[in-house]
Amino acid sequence: MGETPQSHLADGRRTARRRTFLRAVPWVGTALTATGTAAGSATDRDFPPPKRTEWSEPISLGNGELRTFTTVAPSGDPTYHGVVLDRDALTGLPSAAELRARAERGEPGDKYGPTGTALEIHHAWSQEFFVPFPETAATPFTFLGLTWNPEGHPPPGTYDVPHLDVHFHMLEAETVDTIDGPRAAAYTIPEARLPAGYTRVPEPGLDGDFAVVTDMGEHLIDPGAPEHTDGEFTNTLIWGAYDTTGNGRGELTFIEPMVTKRYLETVTGTDRYEIPQPTLYPTAGSYPTAYAVRDVPSDDAIAITIEAFTPVGRTEQH
Protein backbone atom coordinates (compact mmCIF):
# COMPACT_ATOMS: atom_id res chain seq x y z
CA MET A 1 0.00 0.00 0.00
CA GLY A 2 1.20 3.55 -0.69
CA GLU A 3 2.14 6.08 1.96
CA THR A 4 0.05 9.18 2.61
CA PRO A 5 0.91 12.22 4.77
CA GLN A 6 -0.55 12.46 8.23
CA SER A 7 -3.05 15.14 7.23
CA HIS A 8 -5.36 13.04 5.10
CA LEU A 9 -7.82 15.58 3.70
CA ALA A 10 -6.64 19.09 4.43
CA ASP A 11 -3.10 18.54 3.12
CA GLY A 12 -3.24 19.24 -0.59
CA ARG A 13 0.22 17.72 -1.06
CA ARG A 14 -1.18 14.22 -0.84
CA THR A 15 -1.34 12.51 -4.24
CA ALA A 16 -4.56 10.59 -4.85
CA ARG A 17 -4.55 7.45 -6.94
CA ARG A 18 -7.26 6.74 -9.51
CA ARG A 19 -8.87 3.36 -8.99
CA THR A 20 -11.18 1.35 -11.17
CA PHE A 21 -14.23 -0.33 -9.68
CA LEU A 22 -13.51 -3.87 -8.57
CA ARG A 23 -15.06 -6.78 -10.39
CA ALA A 24 -17.58 -8.73 -8.32
CA VAL A 25 -16.63 -12.32 -7.54
CA PRO A 26 -19.01 -15.27 -8.20
CA TRP A 27 -21.88 -15.40 -5.71
CA VAL A 28 -21.83 -18.41 -3.37
CA GLY A 29 -22.98 -18.82 0.21
CA THR A 30 -20.56 -18.95 3.13
CA ALA A 31 -20.83 -19.36 6.88
CA LEU A 32 -19.34 -17.46 9.80
CA THR A 33 -19.68 -17.51 13.56
CA ALA A 34 -18.85 -13.92 14.52
CA THR A 35 -17.74 -12.43 17.78
CA GLY A 36 -19.24 -9.06 18.64
CA THR A 37 -17.28 -5.84 19.00
CA ALA A 38 -18.49 -3.71 21.86
CA ALA A 39 -19.09 0.01 21.55
CA GLY A 40 -16.27 2.10 22.92
CA SER A 41 -14.70 5.53 22.91
CA ALA A 42 -11.15 6.60 22.15
CA THR A 43 -9.39 9.38 20.27
CA ASP A 44 -7.72 8.49 16.95
CA ARG A 45 -5.16 11.24 16.38
CA ASP A 46 -3.59 9.70 13.29
CA PHE A 47 -6.32 7.80 11.53
CA PRO A 48 -6.21 5.87 9.30
CA PRO A 49 -2.59 4.61 9.50
CA PRO A 50 -0.89 6.58 6.70
CA LYS A 51 1.72 3.98 5.67
CA ARG A 52 -0.87 1.27 5.02
CA THR A 53 -3.69 3.30 3.48
CA GLU A 54 -4.63 4.14 -0.10
CA TRP A 55 -7.14 6.82 -1.07
CA SER A 56 -9.66 7.71 -3.74
CA GLU A 57 -9.71 11.09 -5.41
CA PRO A 58 -11.57 13.85 -3.52
CA ILE A 59 -15.32 14.36 -3.80
CA SER A 60 -16.98 17.70 -3.02
CA LEU A 61 -19.69 17.71 -0.37
CA GLY A 62 -21.04 20.89 1.19
CA ASN A 63 -18.13 23.25 1.92
CA GLY A 64 -15.66 20.39 2.23
CA GLU A 65 -14.45 17.16 0.69
CA LEU A 66 -14.56 13.44 1.30
CA ARG A 67 -12.39 10.52 0.21
CA THR A 68 -12.79 6.77 0.45
CA PHE A 69 -9.88 4.66 1.65
CA THR A 70 -8.68 1.11 2.15
CA THR A 71 -6.24 0.13 4.89
CA VAL A 72 -4.48 -3.22 5.16
CA ALA A 73 -2.33 -4.83 7.84
CA PRO A 74 1.37 -5.54 7.17
CA SER A 75 0.25 -9.09 6.33
CA GLY A 76 -2.02 -7.71 3.59
CA ASP A 77 -5.18 -8.63 5.48
CA PRO A 78 -7.93 -5.98 5.37
CA THR A 79 -8.16 -3.54 8.26
CA TYR A 80 -10.59 -0.81 7.11
CA HIS A 81 -12.81 0.23 4.26
CA GLY A 82 -14.05 3.72 5.00
CA VAL A 83 -14.74 7.31 4.13
CA VAL A 84 -13.25 10.42 5.73
CA LEU A 85 -15.14 13.68 5.38
CA ASP A 86 -14.13 17.17 6.43
CA ARG A 87 -16.29 18.65 9.16
CA ASP A 88 -16.73 21.51 6.68
CA ALA A 89 -18.57 19.01 4.47
CA LEU A 90 -21.44 19.22 6.97
CA THR A 91 -21.92 22.92 6.20
CA GLY A 92 -23.23 24.44 2.99
CA LEU A 93 -25.09 21.25 2.06
CA PRO A 94 -27.79 21.60 -0.62
CA SER A 95 -31.44 21.65 0.41
CA ALA A 96 -34.06 19.35 -1.09
CA ALA A 97 -35.48 22.34 -3.02
CA GLU A 98 -32.03 23.13 -4.46
CA LEU A 99 -31.52 19.54 -5.55
CA ARG A 100 -34.94 19.39 -7.15
CA ALA A 101 -34.32 22.67 -9.01
CA ARG A 102 -30.96 21.35 -10.22
CA ALA A 103 -32.64 18.26 -11.68
CA GLU A 104 -35.51 20.23 -13.21
CA ARG A 105 -32.99 22.50 -14.98
CA GLY A 106 -31.64 19.39 -16.64
CA GLU A 107 -28.38 19.66 -14.68
CA PRO A 108 -28.59 16.79 -12.17
CA GLY A 109 -24.86 16.01 -12.35
CA ASP A 110 -23.04 12.69 -12.39
CA LYS A 111 -23.08 10.21 -9.50
CA TYR A 112 -19.60 9.06 -10.59
CA GLY A 113 -18.31 12.65 -10.68
CA PRO A 114 -16.81 14.92 -8.03
CA THR A 115 -20.07 16.73 -7.18
CA GLY A 116 -22.56 13.84 -7.40
CA THR A 117 -26.06 13.87 -8.83
CA ALA A 118 -29.43 15.20 -7.70
CA LEU A 119 -32.26 12.69 -7.85
CA GLU A 120 -35.48 11.69 -6.12
CA ILE A 121 -34.76 8.50 -4.24
CA HIS A 122 -36.44 6.93 -1.23
CA HIS A 123 -39.38 9.28 -2.07
CA ALA A 124 -37.20 12.31 -1.28
CA TRP A 125 -34.73 14.59 -3.08
CA SER A 126 -31.14 13.62 -2.38
CA GLN A 127 -27.54 14.06 -3.53
CA GLU A 128 -25.88 10.77 -4.50
CA PHE A 129 -22.25 9.73 -5.07
CA PHE A 130 -20.65 6.49 -6.29
CA VAL A 131 -17.01 6.45 -5.09
CA PRO A 132 -14.66 3.45 -5.59
CA PHE A 133 -12.58 1.89 -2.83
CA PRO A 134 -8.88 1.37 -3.49
CA GLU A 135 -8.49 -2.28 -4.34
CA THR A 136 -8.06 -5.09 -1.85
CA ALA A 137 -8.78 -8.59 -3.07
CA ALA A 138 -9.49 -9.94 0.42
CA THR A 139 -12.99 -8.43 0.73
CA PRO A 140 -16.03 -8.38 -1.55
CA PHE A 141 -16.57 -4.63 -1.12
CA THR A 142 -16.30 -2.59 -4.29
CA PHE A 143 -17.48 1.01 -3.87
CA LEU A 144 -19.17 3.50 -1.58
CA GLY A 145 -22.66 4.73 -2.40
CA LEU A 146 -23.10 7.88 -0.32
CA THR A 147 -26.40 9.77 -0.23
CA TRP A 148 -27.09 13.12 1.43
CA ASN A 149 -30.77 13.31 2.43
CA PRO A 150 -31.61 16.94 3.38
CA GLU A 151 -35.08 16.05 4.67
CA GLY A 152 -34.44 12.41 5.39
CA HIS A 153 -36.74 9.83 3.83
CA PRO A 154 -39.63 7.55 4.85
CA PRO A 155 -40.88 6.08 7.05
CA PRO A 156 -42.28 9.28 8.63
CA GLY A 157 -41.26 9.83 12.22
CA THR A 158 -38.27 7.48 11.87
CA TYR A 159 -35.74 8.52 9.23
CA ASP A 160 -37.21 11.87 8.14
CA VAL A 161 -34.36 13.96 9.59
CA PRO A 162 -31.25 15.22 7.72
CA HIS A 163 -28.80 12.32 7.42
CA LEU A 164 -26.25 10.47 5.32
CA ASP A 165 -26.76 6.96 3.96
CA VAL A 166 -23.33 5.31 3.71
CA HIS A 167 -23.58 2.18 1.54
CA PHE A 168 -20.66 -0.25 1.44
CA HIS A 169 -21.59 -2.15 -1.73
CA MET A 170 -20.64 -5.71 -2.68
CA LEU A 171 -21.81 -5.48 -6.30
CA GLU A 172 -20.17 -3.76 -9.22
CA ALA A 173 -21.20 -0.13 -9.59
CA GLU A 174 -22.54 -0.82 -13.08
CA THR A 175 -24.88 -3.47 -11.61
CA VAL A 176 -26.15 -1.22 -8.82
CA ASP A 177 -26.66 1.55 -11.39
CA THR A 178 -29.27 -0.62 -13.16
CA ILE A 179 -31.40 -1.16 -10.03
CA ASP A 180 -34.56 0.94 -10.32
CA GLY A 181 -37.47 1.50 -7.98
CA PRO A 182 -39.48 1.80 -5.95
CA ARG A 183 -40.88 -1.57 -6.98
CA ALA A 184 -41.81 -4.83 -5.38
CA ALA A 185 -38.99 -7.18 -4.41
CA ALA A 186 -40.24 -10.24 -6.28
CA TYR A 187 -38.00 -12.77 -4.58
CA THR A 188 -37.59 -14.60 -1.30
CA ILE A 189 -34.63 -14.41 1.07
CA PRO A 190 -33.72 -17.70 2.77
CA GLU A 191 -33.59 -17.28 6.54
CA ALA A 192 -29.94 -18.30 6.71
CA ARG A 193 -29.06 -15.29 4.53
CA LEU A 194 -30.70 -12.80 6.89
CA PRO A 195 -28.38 -11.22 9.47
CA ALA A 196 -29.15 -12.20 13.05
CA GLY A 197 -32.14 -10.22 14.34
CA TYR A 198 -32.85 -8.55 10.97
CA THR A 199 -36.10 -8.65 9.04
CA ARG A 200 -37.62 -7.56 5.74
CA VAL A 201 -39.88 -4.48 5.83
CA PRO A 202 -43.19 -4.26 3.92
CA GLU A 203 -43.60 -1.06 1.87
CA PRO A 204 -47.02 0.58 2.41
CA GLY A 205 -47.08 2.07 -1.10
CA LEU A 206 -46.59 -1.35 -2.67
CA ASP A 207 -49.60 -3.04 -1.04
CA GLY A 208 -47.45 -4.55 1.66
CA ASP A 209 -44.77 -5.96 -0.65
CA PHE A 210 -41.09 -5.56 0.17
CA ALA A 211 -39.46 -2.72 -1.77
CA VAL A 212 -36.46 -2.37 -4.06
CA VAL A 213 -34.99 1.17 -3.96
CA THR A 214 -33.23 2.83 -6.91
CA ASP A 215 -29.42 2.45 -6.93
CA MET A 216 -29.58 0.41 -3.73
CA GLY A 217 -31.87 -2.60 -3.45
CA GLU A 218 -33.96 -3.87 -0.56
CA HIS A 219 -33.35 -2.60 2.99
CA LEU A 220 -33.35 -4.98 5.97
CA ILE A 221 -33.76 -3.56 9.49
CA ASP A 222 -33.18 -4.50 13.10
CA PRO A 223 -36.62 -4.04 14.72
CA GLY A 224 -34.89 -3.70 18.09
CA ALA A 225 -32.95 -0.59 17.04
CA PRO A 226 -33.74 2.55 19.09
CA GLU A 227 -35.66 4.27 16.28
CA HIS A 228 -38.07 1.30 16.18
CA THR A 229 -38.53 1.06 19.94
CA ASP A 230 -39.61 4.59 20.89
CA GLY A 231 -36.03 5.88 20.81
CA GLU A 232 -34.25 8.47 18.68
CA PHE A 233 -32.52 7.86 15.36
CA THR A 234 -28.92 9.09 15.59
CA ASN A 235 -27.10 6.27 13.82
CA THR A 236 -28.21 2.80 12.83
CA LEU A 237 -27.15 -0.14 10.66
CA ILE A 238 -29.05 -1.38 7.62
CA TRP A 239 -28.23 -4.52 5.64
CA GLY A 240 -29.15 -4.53 1.94
CA ALA A 241 -30.30 -7.34 -0.31
CA TYR A 242 -31.16 -7.99 -3.96
CA ASP A 243 -31.80 -10.88 -6.34
CA THR A 244 -28.46 -10.78 -8.13
CA THR A 245 -28.96 -13.87 -10.30
CA GLY A 246 -32.65 -13.68 -11.24
CA ASN A 247 -33.31 -17.05 -9.59
CA GLY A 248 -35.95 -15.64 -7.21
CA ARG A 249 -33.69 -15.75 -4.12
CA GLY A 250 -32.35 -12.55 -2.60
CA GLU A 251 -28.79 -12.20 -1.37
CA LEU A 252 -26.97 -9.69 0.86
CA THR A 253 -25.46 -6.92 -1.29
CA PHE A 254 -24.52 -3.99 0.97
CA ILE A 255 -23.90 -2.83 4.53
CA GLU A 256 -25.23 0.65 5.34
CA PRO A 257 -24.52 2.77 8.39
CA MET A 258 -27.10 5.58 8.45
CA VAL A 259 -25.93 8.60 10.43
CA THR A 260 -27.70 11.87 11.16
CA LYS A 261 -26.06 15.19 10.41
CA ARG A 262 -26.52 16.20 14.03
CA TYR A 263 -24.76 13.07 15.27
CA LEU A 264 -21.78 13.65 12.96
CA GLU A 265 -21.53 17.27 14.09
CA THR A 266 -21.21 16.24 17.74
CA VAL A 267 -19.34 12.91 17.69
CA THR A 268 -16.10 12.76 19.70
CA GLY A 269 -13.66 9.90 20.13
CA THR A 270 -14.70 6.62 18.50
CA ASP A 271 -18.13 5.02 18.61
CA ARG A 272 -17.90 1.37 17.54
CA TYR A 273 -20.85 -0.94 16.99
CA GLU A 274 -21.30 -4.63 16.25
CA ILE A 275 -22.47 -5.71 12.79
CA PRO A 276 -24.93 -8.62 13.19
CA GLN A 277 -24.00 -11.53 10.96
CA PRO A 278 -25.92 -13.95 8.73
CA THR A 279 -25.32 -17.70 8.69
CA LEU A 280 -24.68 -17.75 4.94
CA TYR A 281 -22.70 -15.09 3.09
CA PRO A 282 -22.90 -14.21 -0.60
CA THR A 283 -19.24 -14.95 -1.41
CA ALA A 284 -16.03 -16.14 0.15
CA GLY A 285 -13.80 -13.43 1.57
CA SER A 286 -13.35 -11.26 4.64
CA TYR A 287 -16.40 -9.58 6.18
CA PRO A 288 -16.58 -6.82 8.81
CA THR A 289 -17.98 -7.55 12.25
CA ALA A 290 -18.01 -3.90 13.36
CA TYR A 291 -18.59 -0.41 12.02
CA ALA A 292 -17.32 2.78 13.61
CA VAL A 293 -17.72 6.55 13.53
CA ARG A 294 -14.55 8.41 14.54
CA ASP A 295 -13.56 11.95 15.24
CA VAL A 296 -10.26 12.65 13.45
CA PRO A 297 -9.15 15.87 15.18
CA SER A 298 -5.81 16.11 13.35
CA ASP A 299 -7.73 16.67 10.10
CA ASP A 300 -10.85 18.30 11.57
CA ALA A 301 -12.69 15.38 9.99
CA ILE A 302 -14.89 12.36 10.65
CA ALA A 303 -14.29 8.77 9.53
CA ILE A 304 -16.98 6.13 8.97
CA THR A 305 -15.59 2.63 8.59
CA ILE A 306 -16.33 -1.06 8.42
CA GLU A 307 -13.67 -3.06 10.28
CA ALA A 308 -12.78 -6.08 12.42
CA PHE A 309 -12.79 -8.28 9.32
CA THR A 310 -13.15 -12.04 9.64
CA PRO A 311 -12.46 -14.47 6.77
CA VAL A 312 -15.21 -16.85 5.70
CA GLY A 313 -15.14 -19.77 3.28
CA ARG A 314 -17.53 -21.23 0.74
CA THR A 315 -20.33 -23.47 1.99
CA GLU A 316 -23.30 -23.16 -0.36
CA GLN A 317 -23.58 -23.03 -4.13
CA HIS A 318 -26.56 -21.30 -5.76
Word description of this protein:
The protein has three helices and 20 strands. The protein has one domain (29-312). The longest helix is centred in the N-terminal third of the chain and has 9 residues, at 96-104. The model is unreliable at 1-43 (pLDDT under 50). The relative contact order is 0.20. Strand 15 and strand 16 form a beta hairpin. It has helices spanning 96-104, 173-176, 261-266; strands at residues 29-31, 53-55, 59-61, 64-72, 78-86, 109-110, 116-121, 124-132, 143-149, 163-169, 183-184, 199-200, 211-212, 218-221, 235-242, 251-260, 270-274, 280-281, 285-296, 301-316. The strands form three sheets. Strands 1, 2, 3, 4, 5, 17, 18, 19 and 20 form a nine-stranded antiparallel beta sheet that branches. The two termini are 35 Å apart. It is globular and about 50 Å long. It is mainly beta and 318 residues long.
